[in-house]
Specification:
Blueprint lengths: L20 H8 L15 E2 L2 H5 L2 E2 L2 E6 L2 E4 L11 H5 L4 E2 L1 H7 L5 H4 L4 E4 L1
Parallel strand pairs: 1-6, 3-5
Antiparallel strand pairs: 2-3, 3-4, 4-6
Keywords: Heme, Iron, Metal-binding
GO molecular function: cytochrome-b5 reductase activity, acting on NAD(P)H; heme binding; metal ion binding
Family: Belongs to the cytochrome b5 family.
Length: about 120
């Protein structure tokens, strides 16, 4: 097994009550608008220039493996804290994601946050 001492693990931060991964799964199944498209599953082609405009805590998009996600709703649920996600906001965060989470299925985790394809 890979341990935090031998892997590039980012330190976990204490999460607020109601912001665990189980809470995220509940929210993602609730029908809440997580992609910021008004509840529509409108998946479209997006340029990197458009992604770059979404780089703040209030408006954060990130590219993972060619898919563009609105990560704003997920920030408070992220075990590593919002700060590390903000490093990839408005950018292609694939290499950062793979450094810390190569085993995580981002497509499943962020499915409802999908905005489009790069």
């Amino acid at each position: 097994p890979v341990s935090a001492s031998t892997h590039n693990a980012f330190p976990q931060v204490p999460l607020e009550k109601g912001y665990t991964q189980v809470d995220w799964l509940r929210l993602s199944k609730s029908g809440t608008d997580l992609n910021g498209l008004g509840g529509k599953a409108l998946r479209r082609d997006i340029t990197l220039e458009e992604v770059k405009k979404h780089h703040t805590a209030d408006d954060a998009w990130m590219v993972l493996r060619g898919k563009v996600y609105n990560i704003g709703p997920y920030m408070r649920f992220h075990p590593g804290g919002a700060a590390i996600l903000l490093k990839a906001a408005g950018k292609d965060g694939t290499s950062l994601f793979m450094k810390y989470h190569p085993w995580v299925n981002a497509d499943a985790l962020l499915e409802k946050c999908l905005v489009g394809m790069l």
